[in-house]
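Tip: read the tokens left to right.
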């Protein structure tokens, strides 16, 4: 038996709508930062604009990847093309790592050379940077929320990347304030702290993508077993496994019933499917039914698994 409460094409369209909205917001942030940097003559602000441009580029990559990932299963790919999403997360991680390297290299060079810079700072410069910071925070909140609701690893990874943009903008703001006060050494020091934050975010995205590609369990076996054992007709649970999330989430269980009433067993398994979807958000659930009389020596009882 199987069920799907969030078909992949519908989820894909929803994710792409989210990305189109984010693309508009990110392009507005890029334009605002670029103009502010040009008016102030600030290389740091212009660099931040380039960093924000990677957010827009990731949105475009995501739109293409997620459209491709939603292609229906075919003979060569019977489970569909959903693994393209974590591959897209790899791209996000690589971009974040590259940005962290470039920022870190520039910061170290400035510290080594003792370089200083003079900026034509105006209240408008700070207003623009604060405004883009608020926009980025809203983007992170919206994208992370949408990623959790839609079960999209790419949206969650891209939200982490946008959060790194928040760290960069905060670092630039602190550096600008420091330069305004005459503390020229503060700018590269803050940049190194930003590098650490961005690097950690890239590592988190990379690990998440690897787990997706390696089919890490979506739910602990013991949790699914305990849920199934709540039904009085179920005397044993075997062959439990799960992977993925949301529209691309799968769970498989074999239930052993104390009776051989097939209609009653189907009613119980239907109820269990609904519970799994509601509690864990997995769309594809397969439950095999067996009467208590059917048992092989290699099977493991639920209480043995949970021990």
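Filled-in amino acids:
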């Amino acid at each position: 038996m199987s069920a799907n409460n969030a078909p992949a094409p519908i989820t894909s369209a929803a994710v792409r709508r989210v990305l189109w909205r984010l693309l508009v917001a990110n392009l507005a942030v890029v334009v605002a930062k670029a103009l502010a940097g040009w008016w102030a003559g600030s290389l740091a602000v212009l660099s931040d604009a380039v960093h924000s441009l990677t957010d827009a580029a990731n949105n475009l990559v995501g739109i293409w990847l997620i459209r491709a990932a939603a292609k229906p299963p075919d003979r060569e790919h019977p489970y569909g093309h959903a693994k393209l999403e974590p591959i897209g997360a790899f791209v996000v991680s690589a971009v974040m790592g590259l940005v962290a390297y470039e920022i870190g290299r520039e910061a170290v060079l400035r510290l080594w050379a003792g370089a200083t810079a003079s900026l034509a700072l105006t209240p408008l410069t700070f207003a623009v940077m604060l405004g883009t910071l608020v926009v980025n925070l809203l983007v992170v909140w919206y994208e992370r929320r949408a990623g959790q609701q839609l079960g999209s690893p790419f949206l969650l990874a891209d939200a982490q990347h946008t959060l790194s943009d928040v760290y960069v903008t905060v670092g630039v703001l602190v550096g600008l304030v420091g330069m305004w006060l005459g503390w020229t050494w503060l700018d590269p020091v803050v940049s190194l702290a930003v590098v650490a934050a961005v690097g950690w975010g890239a590592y988190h995205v990379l690990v998440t993508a690897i787990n997706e590609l390696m089919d890490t369990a979506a739910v602990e076996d013991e949790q699914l077993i305990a849920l199934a054992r709540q039904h009085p007709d179920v005397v044993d649970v075997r062959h439990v496994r799960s992977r993925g999330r949301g529209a691309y989430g799968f769970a498989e269980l074999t239930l052993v019933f104390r009776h051989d009433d097939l209609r009653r067993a189907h009613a119980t398994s239907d109820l269990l499917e609904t519970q799994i979807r509601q509690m864990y958000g997995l769309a594809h659930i397969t439950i095999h039914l067996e009467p208590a009389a059917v048992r092989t020596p290699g099977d493991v009882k639920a209480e043995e698994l949970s021990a």
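The longest strand covers residues 234-243. The longest helix spans residues 8-40.
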